[in-house]
């Protein structure tokens, strides 16, 4: 029995994506083409390879056995194709989903430098905190703060831990005094940073003599924009709490004073995450290597 090689390519993509739609996006073809090819393979082999549902497909025992047999050879073929493609350099559209907090790491020079180094890659960056599904939304990768693991996604830390800081203007502190301990914060006007995908962070986290300490704060001003939080602090509105990088330049200039430094803790930094597959596309590998202090560089 002779089976067309392209049918096995499509079968492998479906097996690894567990979805006709995701396999179609991965291969750059229509969902209908994937479905028809899968049906043809089942007809040629005279066996059912998967059970379809509305949003996914699950391999049957026969499908699992076939995948176990073809995954290795198909991987070697993919290696050969990638090696050939790499001779001309990475190319294609690279779609990245970035949280609003993580978007700050994508500076103008970093993005411009990447485009200059890889002129055949079209960079498409979406900034959103809406909690979109990376795979179903058709993104190649995402960047966010934190090291949360999700099934089906590979997560790689980039950069390093992020130190927290509390800061306020000299004028505000002149009128209200300095807090001596994190537990003093509820008595002050505070400026909080929230995410759009979750409830406001009423708990501000610190470390006291090596022990974790959470303080309940009811901010007078809440915002999802760290730039607005910073402007409010510069305008003498209260004590702001966020990542040290947000305040660094203004601490150096004297426009803001850092507070409670002995109680500050660090949080996991930026993470790049992408669908778990055996092979990372060359365009994504190029982007990962271009990021600062990448673990895969």
TrEMBL record:
Q: Which InterPro entries match?
A: LysR-type_TF_proteobact-type, LysR_HTH_N, LysR_subst-bd, WH-like_DNA-bd_sf, WH_DNA-bd_sf
Protein family according to the UniProt entry: Belongs to the LysR transcriptional regulatory family.
Protein name per Swiss-Prot or TrEMBL: Transcriptional regulator
Concerning Gene3D superfamilies, the annotation shows: 3.40.190.290, Winged helix-like DNA-binding domain superfamily/Winged helix DNA-binding domain
- Which keywords are on file for this protein? DNA-binding, Transcription, Transcription regulation
Organism of derivation: Asaia krungthepensis NRIC 0535
Does the keyword tRNA processing feature in the UniProt annotation? no
Kinase among the record's keywords? no
Name of one Pfam family that matches: LysR_substrate
**Which residue ranges does the record assign to the HTH lysR-type domain?**
3-60
What's the source species' lineage? Bacteria, Pseudomonadati, Pseudomonadota, Alphaproteobacteria, Acetobacterales
Reading the lineage from the top rank, the first entry is: Bacteria
